[in-house]
Amino acid sequence: ETKMETMKVEERVAGRTEVQGEEKVIESALPAEDLTKSIFKDVLFDYDKYDIKPEARPALDAVAAYLGSNKGINIVVEGHCDDRGTNEYNLALGERRAKSAKNYLTSLGVSPDRMIIITFGEEKPVCTAQNEACWQQNRRAHFVIVKSRFEK
């Protein structure tokens, strides 16, 4: 496992991530304003779960295929939750979701050194309505492309 495998993000601006008060640099292959955009489909999870569902496998297979064809690209795997549960619990659950996605990609042959995980817990929802359809969108692993290296 890499030294930066798990990060609790305090602040994320223009390709820089502050990890528990210590700044780490993530070089982005995209303009800074596009850092959180992705060409990949999010992997969705059931409530309070972090196992990869069969219907999520094609999305992960696509990420692995892309990385296999683009050796100079690395990714950040973000773990997200809905807003139910405590912030502390959701940060841990988001981490488990990101790790599950990373482990699946590793099982497909992607080097773990090409991926880092970040947990956002409930901090970055894509939907804010209080209903199951919205909560489902927030329970996800999201993939962000970054340039060739992670500064450790």
State Rg: 14 Å
| Order of SSEs | EEEEHEHEHE
**Structurally, how many domains make up the residues?**
1
Biggest sheet record: 7 strands, mixed
Which shape, going by the Cα principal axes? Answer: elongated
Task: Kindly provide the name of the CATH class.
Answer: Alpha Beta
List the helices and strands and how they pair.
Elements: E1 6-13, E2 16-19, E3 22-25, E4 43-44, H1 57-69, E5 74-80, H2 87-107, E6 115-121, H3 132-138, E7 140-146
Parallel strand pairs: 1-6, 5-6
Antiparallel strand pairs: 1-2, 2-3, 4-7, 5-7
Care to give the gist of this entry?
With 152 residues, the protein is α/β, with parallel strands linked by helices.
Structure description:
The protein has 152 residues and is of the alpha/beta class. The chain has one domain: 60s Ribosomal Protein L30, Chain: A (2-Layer Sandwich), CATH 3.30.1330. Helices cover 27% and strands 26% of the residues. The chain is built from three helices and seven strands, in the order E-E-E-E-H-E-H-E-H-E. It has a seven-stranded mixed sheet with strand order 3-2-1-6-5-7-4. The protein is elongated and about 40 Å long. It starts with 5 loop residues before the first strand and ends in a 6-residue tail after the last strand. The model is unreliable at 1-36 (pLDDT under 50).
